[in-house]
Amino acid sequence: MDTTNLNCVIIGASHAGANCAMELRKQGWQGNIYLIDADAHLPYHRPPLSKEYLSKEEEGATKFKPLFALERYQEEEITLQLGLKVTKVIKKLKSVILSNGETIRYDKLVIATGASAIVPPIEGIESCRKVSVLRSAKDAIQIQQDFKTSTNKEVVIIGGGYIGLETAASLRKLGGNITVLEREERILARVAPIALADYFQELHTANGVKIHTGASAIKIIETDDAIEIQCNNRNVFTADVLIVGAGVKPNTFVAEEIGAEINNGIKVDENLQTTVEDVYAIGDVAQFYHPTYKEWMRLESVQNAVDQAKIVACNIIGNRQNYNAIPWFWSDQYHVKLQMVGLSKGFTYMVIRTEADKKDCFSIWYFKNDALIAVDAVNNGKAFVLGGKFIQNKILVDPLKIADNTIPFKPNNFIKTEINAH
Amino acid sequence: MAKITYITKAGEEIQLEANSGSLMELAVKHKVAGIDGDCGGVCSCATCHVHVAPEFYQKLDAPTEIESDMLEFDDNVTEYSRLCCQIPISAAVDGITVNVAN
Question: How far apart are CA A361 and CA A396, in angstroms?
Fold first, then answer.
């Protein structure tokens, strides 16, 4: 395909968008590439925002870890349009209009607009000045400033998901008094099974973070020097800093403008194209059908963003590729590294493996009938890597052998042989 | 200033220089094929696997347990395998050669 005179416009310059731009060049795209984002920072790694960034004493934007150095964009002749919003998309003219009035025509459009943090409709939250979400560099700067200037370092976090818990761990490290309010009966309710949630609940409790489950904030009152949070169970908490980690919603504005189908994200086919020709969607915003897990899904992760970026670049250039990557995630809290591979949703049974000679090191293996579908590994990189390989290659493994920690951790010890397979 | 040589799977030899950062960051900056560093350098993804030249391997600080664990079952692992996001650039690595593993 001769792409010399073509324009590819990528809206959203985070993990998905920036990697897509780089991959397009790698695949031989000759035409212009525009990379647009409302965020004025040079595209940066987001996971550290709730981890290293918040847990360090010093501040300043220089610490944001760029995805690629500025020189790379220049070398690759990628036109960065940062600090600019897309205000309108005109489908008929295949054009996007930016907040500075500029119009850019596209031949191929990639929507990588990600997701925005949800602020739940709690009475008084809108008018409260000291409430933050954590999604962008700007949010992280805000939280860090609010925390440092607060008198009592009292932090209340609404939401016991990964963002809430990582933020709790990071600010605890800086000496904050942290309370996490989770409206469900347990933390990580939507994203982890009970065994894992219990482990993290104990981890946080042991580190001095107070976790209240079944605690739904219903009213927020800001006074001169504090914020009062009233809960459904009549508990009242006082904070200097209030952080909300209550999930995200996909940013589908661009798809709405051009009439692409939306259903919890922008629907894409196996080539990551939306229902509108020449318009693609990748990363947190994309709703896709996963051939391995046989389900429609939208994933919020670096892996999904980067892998979809690579696949979509191939498809844009005319080299058709289907997306079928095994998902993986990680979370760092205190001394604990949690790594997850696969998706455990819908598992029929699971086994837990501890390691005989190690404390604080275990893994949970999820099966759907005979097939291994996911592994959650706590301080156990071996289980993460090996589990990923087993899933990728659809290898049948014996759950009883995995659960037996007297059996050494070696692939051949776990793989089902002809003899004991039914 | 430390000189670092990367040899890709395709046999391309790339010589780079830097004062700081990690071997992974330097490689990503200069598009060394096979080094992605998707997780940003926190030992979570194993997309920066290299084989360190034997004479240099011993000079490096030993890998942490999580790094060794990540490498044990990775493709093309050898006794000289490292995740190069865990190798900081300093005078100590001046002259090092690494082969990209995957």
Answer: 24
Residue A296: both structure tokens together: 């429609």
Instruction: Look up residue A331 and give its two tokens.
Output: 């979370």
CA angle A217, A221, A225 (to 5 degrees): 125
Q: Is B40:A65 a contact under the CB 8 Å cutoff?
A: yes
3-state secondary structure (DSSP) of residue A182? strand
Q: Name the minimum distance, in Å, from the CA of B32 to any CA of chain A.
A: 12
| Cβ A189 vs Cβ A182: under 8 Å | yes
What domains, with CATH codes, occur in chain B? 2-16+25-100 (3.10.20.30)
Coil, helix or strand at residue A157: strand
pLDDT 10s digits, A242-271: 999 999 999 999 999 999 999 999 999 999
ipTM of the complex: 0.93
- Segment A337-368, tens digit of pLDDT: 999 999 999 999 999 999 988 889 999 999 99
Write out chain A residues lying below 8 Å of B67, CB-based.
Answer: 381
The whole model's pTM is what?
A: 0.95
Query: Do A385 and B29 count as a contact with CB atoms less than 8 A apart?
Result: no
